[in-house]
Write a structure and sequence with these properties.
Length: 361
Amino acid sequence: MSRLGRANLNVTRKWQDTLMANARPRKNGRKPIAKLPKIVSLFSGAGGLDHGFKSVGFELSAAFDISSAAIETHKRNFPSAVSTAADLIELGPKGVSSLVRSTLPPGSRIGIIGGPPCQGFSRANTTATASDPRNKLPKLYIEIVRELQAHFLVEFVVFENVLGMRDKKHSASYQNLLSGLRTLGFNVTEKELCALDFGVPQTRKRIVLSAIRAELGAKSVHPRKRKGLATVQDAIGTLPQPRFFSRDLTENDIPHHPNHWTMNPVSPRFRMKAAVHGGRCFKQLSWEKPSPTIAFGHREIYVHPSGTRRLSIFEAMLLQGFPRSFVLKGNLSEQVEQVSNAVPPPLAKSLAAAIRHALGE
């Protein structure tokens, strides 16, 4: 075992001793039921992954994202968590650790979840290269995990990203991520997951690494597939018309849901037959099929099946599997970014349930 591995093992055993002392039998001979590990969310975005973990009983303690609008969304939907708008590169592992320690007592059991921005690995980014600065974020992720291990008992780590991360030109970064997690004392399960298999009407595929602390002797993590919505019609077929964007538009002006708004359909294409739609900027959805991956550019929001306008933000949220009670904050562009980057909550819920099962809790 390496010197780093022995150091991490010693830290783990120290916190295990603390936990065992706190779990001594009560007078009736029963041990108190241990609470689930608290969640630290890195690159949280709006909180799609966080919502899945909350849905199966995990408590969100701290969340970090560079987008102030995403953090406002997080605060609105997860008011009990301490959500921080910060560039994790500038904050660094010690800065993250300091903020988490202000939220949780040392020795607490935690789980770390997140998915760094994926554009540097995305196959849709035809100019992506191995030298893209964003490709250094997985290394930062490992460094943050290592730093948090010095103060907390990290029971598991979840890392989500695009399939392109495993492509040949990014293989060194991907293999370093895997070896980094294993060096820190985790058993890693690699899974390619499709949102459609978890009741989300979208053909979104992602790679998910689920790393469980090796000393737990846990089994591999296998999210259970679930039936649910399968087509665009299932998700948004009964919605009323959205409001169109205007500079003075506020939440109070939008009926049905605060995010049920979209851009004005000014292109001549919206007044032509649906057959002219197509290509990256005018990809039209079909009522009878699931949506392609929700990954919009600033003006590349998919065209509604009617062919007369683009999707509203709320319609995109439903196609991502967000509950109707969820609300995104920020301007139109910020909401587009948040809904595009999110992990579908139903997929996240199955993943979180599988993590909980692997932990034996």
